[in-house]
Amino acid sequence: MSAVWVVDDDRSIRWVLEKALGREGIEHRLFATAQEALGALERDVPKVLVSDIRMPGASGLELLRALKARYPAIPVIIMTAYADLDSAVSAFQGGAYEYLAKPFDIDRATALIRRALEETAADRDASASQPQVPEILGRAPAMQELFRAIGRLSQSSATVLITGESGTGKELVARALHRHGARAAKPFVAINTAAVPRELLESELFGHERGAFTGAQQLRRGRFEQAEGGTLFLDEIGDMPAELQTRLLRVLSDGTYYRVGGHQPLRADVRVIAATHQDLESRVRDGGFREDLYHRLNVIRLRIPPLRERADDIAALARHFLARSAASLGVEAKRFSPEVLERLSRFPFPGNVRQLENLCHWLCVMAPGQSIGLADLPAEIRGVGAAPANDWLAALEAEAGRRLAGGGGAVLEELTRDFERVLIRKALERTGGRRVEAAALLGMGRNTIARKIQELDIEAGEA
């Protein structure tokens, strides 16, 4: 069984997905037409199918129907343009797993494909004793506090808002809250509200009645109904359109909702866990997010720290991901040299845990020996700490993260002042306090440096 099949007559789309899946280490096959994919079904079966909806010859809808008729459990991700609304709705009726609206963000696309693969694997291994998702690792104080919070919330059905940068593992935390809670025996349903076209999101969340709109040939249960009795995880809630914010507020307020085109109110027995990488308070101030909905969601807030704030966890996480990649690929596990682990612990990882996981998978595939050394690392990580020129950038990124985590509203201004102060002081030291020469070194005018010295309160002795 192959992993992912990509079907699109657009060569550029196939090329982009081929490169992205290759970087992720995901096995894949490419097809230019639905007919080619249908022919391949005689000899092979995908774990996930990604298909354009409009192609010459057989359409993506025909391919979807043919696959679902024979293999109903295989997730099908439909790629669609904005103008394909009617066809997209029809595809939902045919059992599409999720949507990628063109043009799509490649990181979101690969994340969606990986999620479909994981859910397929989870369905196959449902009888296994181990959890469906990996345990969350972390010895850092912030992570220990997060673990304690999950434990305290284990018997609660309170709404939770999870905040954190992209790649920190917000869905893992949501799944842990569900798995250790009173609703663990019921469904956990996740949806990325930013990944679904806004024209389809209402139907996706609340379902629709037959005949509600063109293409609605039968009743569809939305995610709220699918999660009945369990947990609904709303990822990237900050991107939810305003009109749907109003509908979500009603569900959270009185527990009722209507399918699109429906007149019968439905009760929602669902625990809602929302997540965002955005500053919702700023979104509220800017009018992009309803204040009353924000307060409904923000009953209990859990913040996941970025990886740069938990550098002591990097070595353990790296070993874990490397071993897991080796197991998934069926190869002998590799090991990190002490120098590599030390270098990784000083890298800021702007992509957080997801970036570290992808790096470990890449090393598992690409590193030639069983021991991974510094020479095996990508150039951008090899260089960290190799020369002082790189240290200050890592330090700046860490300091920026620390200040931003504090919720300050003037981080740019504060860091700019500190940066200018250090530069001017060092230039003055080099020129023995001669302002004109210091200004020339810095590339600024003498009037400018005089004004900066006054504004930045640099002492006379320094000038």
How is this structure best described in words?
The chain is α/β, with parallel strands linked by helices and about 475 residues long. It has four domains: about 1-130, Response regulator (Rossmann fold), CATH 3.40.50.2300; about 130-305, 3-Layer(aba) Sandwich (Rossmann fold); about 305-390, Orthogonal Bundle (Helicase, Ruva Protein, domain 3); about 410-455, Orthogonal Bundle (Arc Repressor Mutant, subunit A). It is built from 20 helices and 14 strands. It has a five-stranded parallel beta sheet, with helices on both faces. Strands 7-8-11-6-12 form a five-stranded parallel beta sheet. The protein has a two-stranded antiparallel ribbon with strand order 9-10. A hairpin with an 8-residue loop joins strand 9 (about 255) and strand 10. Helix 10 (about 240-255) crosses helix 12 (about 290-295) and helix 13 crosses helix 15. The chain is globular and about 80 Å long.
Write the layout of secondary structure elements.
Blueprint lengths: L1 E6 L3 H14 L3 E4 L2 H7 L5 E7 L7 H11 L5 E5 L4 H9 L4 E4 L4 H19 L16 H12 L7 E4 L6 H10 L8 E5 L5 H9 L16 H4 L4 E5 L6 H13 L1 E2 L8 E2 L3 E6 L3 H6 L5 H7 L2 E4 L10 H16 L5 E2 L1 H8 L6 H15 L4 E2 L6 H4 L5 H18 L5 H20 L4 H8 L3 H10 L8
Parallel strand pairs: 1-2, 1-3, 3-4, 4-5, 6-11, 6-12, 7-8, 8-11, 13-14
Antiparallel strand pairs: 9-10
Helix pairs in contact: 1-5, 2-3, 10-12, 13-15, 18-19, 19-20
